[in-house]
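Module 6 notes. Inverse folding takes a fixed backbone as the condition and produces residue identities as the prediction. Think of it as a translation problem where the source language is geometry and the target language is the twenty amino acids. Below is one complete input and output pair. Work through it position by position during the lab.
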């Protein structure tokens, strides 16, 4: 045992006298504040908000940022130290948003922001390179009526609607304002499939959809065959020749009597 003690390195500190690493990191508040002052100025640092440990050798000290336009933001100063050190060193000074900070909304790519109706005259809107709604024109669309006519006439398009694209359009039209679940359709018992203004679409979509040709209703719009409105071709005319609520009368043939005493 004596030989081990004699072989100890000269000047080595006793373990009991070494500074506690956690205490060293937590006591570096003044150094952290000084780092912010040097970085951005005395008047930008607010009250001290506390410290948290990123790992055993680094702690982040936070101060309220006192700067115009940065309400709720915080200064974060990372202080680091190695085991046995008697002081911490500055690792990083950053400005970070706090829980109440006002932040810009999350950025959304333009192709995800665009909505039906946004296209204006002169605008260009190319489909995505891998748009699942389209397939090359040399591929069959899956709609026999369209494919047969195209082959017969020798017509061809660079791209055609895919079965998935056709199904997606059908679902969108069914769920839209001219579908059977709309308020207009629920307010009448008549449906488009029986209407003289209903023009069915060609191909497989024609079994469920058509175009309305009534200028006083959904003129030029795709409507579901189960959609309906009050302008149906079978809508009867109101009874009577005068006001629908009152029958005409001639007050010249009325007898008047004096009220009884």
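Target side of the pair, the amino acids:
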């Amino acid at each position: 045992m004596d030989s081990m003690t004699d072989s100890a390195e000269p000047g080595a500190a006793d373990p009991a006298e070494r500074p506690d690493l956690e205490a060293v990191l937590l006591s570096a508040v003044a150094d952290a504040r000084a780092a912010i002052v040097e970085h951005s100025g005395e008047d930008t640092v607010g009250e001290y908000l506390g410290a948290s440990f990123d790992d055993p050798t680094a702690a982040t000290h936070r101060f309220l940022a006192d700067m115009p336009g940065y309400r709720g933001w915080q200064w974060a100063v990372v202080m680091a130290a190695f085991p046995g050190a008697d002081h911490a060193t500055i690792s990083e000074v950053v400005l970070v948003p706090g829980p109440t900070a006002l932040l810009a909304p999350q950025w959304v790519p333009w192709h995800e922001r665009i909505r039906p109706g946004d296209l204006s005259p002169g605008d260009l809107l190319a489909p995505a390179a891998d748009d699942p709604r389209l397939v090359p024109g040399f591929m069959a669309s899956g709609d026999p009526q369209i494919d047969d006519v195209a082959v017969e006439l020798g017509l061809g398009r660079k791209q055609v609607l895919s079965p998935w694209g056709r199904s997606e359009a059908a679902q969108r039209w069914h769920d839209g304002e001219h579908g059977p679940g709309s308020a207009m359709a629920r307010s009448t018992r008549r449906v488009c499939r029986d209407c003289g203004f209903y023009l069915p679409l060609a191909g497989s979509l024609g079994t469920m959809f058509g175009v309305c040709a009534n200028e006083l209703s959904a003129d030029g719009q795709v409507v579901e065959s189960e959609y309906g409105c009050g302008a149906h071709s079978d809508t009867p005319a109101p009874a009577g020749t005068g006001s629908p609520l009152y029958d005409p009368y001639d007050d010249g043939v009325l007898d008047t009597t004096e009220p009884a005493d």
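Reference fact for the lab report: Residues 163-175 form the longest helix (13 residues).
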